């Protein structure tokens, strides 16, 4: 959301990242200082109440006449998360949770950018041209990204990939791929022993060449599974957070999505 908002705003305002670099947003809770930042802001952008579950409570104390609140995924129909049982240790079944990871689909990402643009134009009509020009340039890059993905996977024979965190469901759907996940839509949802056995069998029977994991979350299970099955590990970044190092290196949504595409080509070919 930070990167999308920054690209729409350009030099017309200051965009600040609320969730600290390298922090897993599924686990994030705002501090009193963070809440004050939201209260003091002119505009507050978040992805979806299904990911930033704390937003609902925070907004009760925010003056919406002052702070314009943008739920970027608000107009997108969310689908249910991973279909298999993701029983957490507390015994809760997360089968019915909606999947918030829309930004990982370059087409839905465009919808989020448009939602941010429209909210800013509405609030600052005198800056309409600036926001429209900025977002048009960025949307063009997202269209190119979509074309790259489409072309890469159009003639692939294997269309299934195995990933640790079920963050790539919308991306998979957009390009006719199938995501098999080890954990659920929240990366700390540990798989049950029967799900692990099932995955191991799946990997062996289908000659799955790569298991994807993400660097920021716990990836122990993915690594164990790769070791047990003798399969290569590769990174798929769910872009929920970039580390400070990645930010300083100039990484952004588009550069990481291009890295994800290269990584996916290792199994979808
Ligand atoms: Zn996630």
From TrEMBL:
Keywords: Signal, Transport
Highest rank taxon of the organism: Eukaryota
Gene Ontology biological process terms from the UniProt entry: cell adhesion; metal ion transport
GO MF assignments: metal ion binding
InterPro entries noted in UniProt: AdhesinB, Bact_metal-bind_prot9, Lipoprotein_PsaA-like, ZnuA-like
Similarity comment text for this entry: Belongs to the bacterial solute-binding protein 9 family.
Protein name: Uncharacterized protein
Record organism: Spodoptera exigua
């Amino acid at each position: 959301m930070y990167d999308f908002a920054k690209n729409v705003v350009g030099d017309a305002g200051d965009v600040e990242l609320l969730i600290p670099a390298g922090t897993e947003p599924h686990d994030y809770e705002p501090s009193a200082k963070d809440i004050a930042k939201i209260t003091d802001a002119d505009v507050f952008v978040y992805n979806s109440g299904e990911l930033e579950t704390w937003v609902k409570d925070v907004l009760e104390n925010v003056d919406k006449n002052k702070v314009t609140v943008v739920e970027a995924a608000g107009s997108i129909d969310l689908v249910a998360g991973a279909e298999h049982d993701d029983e957490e240790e507390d015994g809760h079944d997360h089968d019915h949770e909606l999947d918030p990871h829309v930004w990982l689909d370059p087409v839905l990402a465009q919808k989020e950018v448009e939602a941010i643009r429209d909210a800013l134009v509405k609030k600052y009509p005198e800056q309409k041209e600036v926001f429209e020009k900025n977002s048009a340039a960025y949307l063009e890059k997202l269209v190119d990204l979509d074309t790259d993905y489409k072309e890469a996977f159009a003639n692939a024979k294997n269309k299934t990939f195995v990933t640790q965190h079920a963050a790539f469901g919308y991306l998979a759907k957009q390009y006719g791929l199938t995501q098999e996940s080890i954990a659920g839509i929240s990366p700390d949802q540990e798989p049950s022993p029967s799900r692990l056995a099932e995955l191991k069998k799946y990997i062996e029977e289908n000659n799955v060449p790569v298991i994807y994991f993400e660097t920021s979350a716990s990836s122990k299970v993915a690594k164990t599974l790769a070791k047990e099955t003798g399969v290569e590990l590769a990174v798929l970044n769910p872009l929920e957070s970039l580390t400070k190092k990645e930010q300083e290196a100039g990484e952004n949504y588009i550069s990481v999505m291009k890295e994800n595409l290269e990584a996916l080509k290792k199994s979808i070919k």
